[in-house]
């Protein structure tokens, strides 16, 4: 099968050797696996981080967002049949979706939204899982809850932020405050349902005070946590909750003690990586997301379509993500 891989980590995305096309054997499904013929993929920051920093001794396939058709199933699969259209984010411990075929455990896949084309659906899985788990599983907000409280989303215009903004605005009663630094990204966040937008290049506390919010109950820090950390602690109310998804070099938790602020990591790969007893929850989350999309409650966060799935376009996608100026999700479609 055709696959786009890397063999040498740390190369700039513009280097033709950073991602290149090769032929690899088509994988064979294990007992709980779906063999999926991939039709569309999305590119995420984790793709660029692995390419840049993870050594490999053999060609490695990146990519953990995919839409495709089930071609074959393992002996113990019960949730799907060949021919089903599915979407999923995969496991970081397995080969990814930059290939014509991929394997995914049925417990972390779901039938794709009926009302979306492949490219629009491919934009959803990884960010939807991250946002849903962060809001409901980690921060502990209840659906329909949060009345009188506020959620500050730092980096609300990115892939995860674009979904989290919608989930919080549509499924809770929280006052949703997103951060953005450009007029176009600020408008994007408002269009997704944010009640307020403040500029994260300016002091966050000043921005919150300007909209009459001295403190917030919840913070979802999606980017640049290290640089905002002291301000986030000050902005959080006593007994507030701080959720983080990015990779700060280090964080000192001691400043959280005085306010009894709880700290919550979110990594959507954890359930699949450790095959936790509740691994099937990701199938359930993606099924709920598909239903909400088909009902018109949620919308795709597709930002840019860069054409076919090939090495040149994937290098372009990685370059754009590394620039820090992408909006929404970057999608490629077809081989």
Question: Can you describe this structure?
Answer:
With about 325 residues, the chain is of the alpha/beta class. It has 2 domains: about 1-125 and about 270-335, Quinone Oxidoreductase, Chain A, domain 1 (Alpha-Beta Complex); about 145-265, NAD(P)-binding Rossmann-like Domain (Rossmann fold), CATH 3.40.50.720. Helices cover about 30% and strands about 25% of the residues. It has helices at about 45-55, 120, 125-140, 160-170, 185-190, 205-210, 225-235, 270-275, 280-295, 310-325, and strands at about 1-5, 20-25, 35-45, 60, 65-75, 85-90, 100-105, 110, 150-155, 175-180, 195-200, 215-220, 235-245, 260-265, 300-305, 330-335. Strands 3, 5, 6, 7, 8, 15 and 16 form a 7-stranded mixed sheet that branches. The chain has a 6-stranded parallel sheet with strand order 11-10-9-12-13-14, with helices on both faces. Strands 2-1-4 form a 3-stranded antiparallel sheet, covered by helices on one side. Helix 4 (about 160-170) links the parallel strand 9 and strand 10 (about 175-180). The chain starts with a strand and ends with a strand. This is Zinc-type alcohol dehydrogenase-like protein. Pfam families: ADH_N (PF08240), ADH_zinc_N_2 (PF13602). Belongs to the zinc-containing alcohol dehydrogenase family. Quinone oxidoreductase subfamily. GO terms for molecular function: oxidoreductase activity; zinc ion binding.
């Amino acid at each position: 099968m055709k696959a786009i891989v890397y063999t040498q980590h740390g190369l700039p995305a513009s280097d033709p050797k950073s991602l290149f096309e090769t032929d690899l054997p088509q994988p064979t499904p294990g007992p709980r696996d779906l063999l999926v013929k991939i039709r569309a993929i999305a590119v995420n920051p984790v793709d660029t981080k692995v390419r840049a920093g993870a050594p490999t001794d053999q060609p490695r396939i990146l990519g953990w967002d995919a839409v495709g058709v089930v071609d074959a199933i393992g002996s113990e699969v019960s949730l799907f049949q060949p021919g089903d259209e599915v979407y999923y984010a995969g496991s970081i411990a397995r080969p990814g979706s930059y290939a014509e075929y991929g394997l995914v455990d049925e417990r972390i896949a779901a039938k794709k939204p009926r009302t979306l084309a492949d490219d629009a659906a491919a934009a959803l899985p990884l960010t939807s899982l991250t946002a849903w788990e962060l809001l409901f599983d980690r921060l502990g907000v209840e659906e329909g809850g949060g009345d009188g409280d506020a959620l500050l989303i730092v980096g609300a215009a990115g892939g995860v932020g674009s979904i989290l903004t919608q989930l919080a605005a549509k499924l809770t009663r929280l006052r949703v405050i997103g951060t953005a630094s450009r007029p176009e990204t600020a408008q994007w966040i408002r269009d997704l349902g944010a009640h307020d937008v403040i500029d994260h290049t300016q002091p966050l506390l000043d921005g919150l005070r300007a909209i009459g919010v001295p403190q917030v109950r919840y913070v979802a820090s999606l980017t640049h946590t290290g640089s905002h950390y002291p301000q986030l602690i000050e902005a959080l109310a006593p007994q507030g909750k701080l959720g983080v998804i990015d990779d700060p070099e280090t964080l000192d938790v001691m400043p959280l003690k005085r306010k009894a602020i709880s700290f919550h990591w979110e990594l959507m790969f954890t359930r699949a990586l450790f095959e936790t007893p509740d691994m099937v929850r990701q199938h359930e989350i993606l099924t709920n997301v598909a239903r909400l999309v088909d009902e018109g409650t949620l919308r795709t966060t597709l930002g840019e379509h860069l054409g076919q799935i090939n090495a040149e376009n994937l290098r372009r996608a990685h370059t754009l993500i590394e620039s820090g100026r992408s909006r929404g999700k970057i999608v490629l479609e077809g081989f």
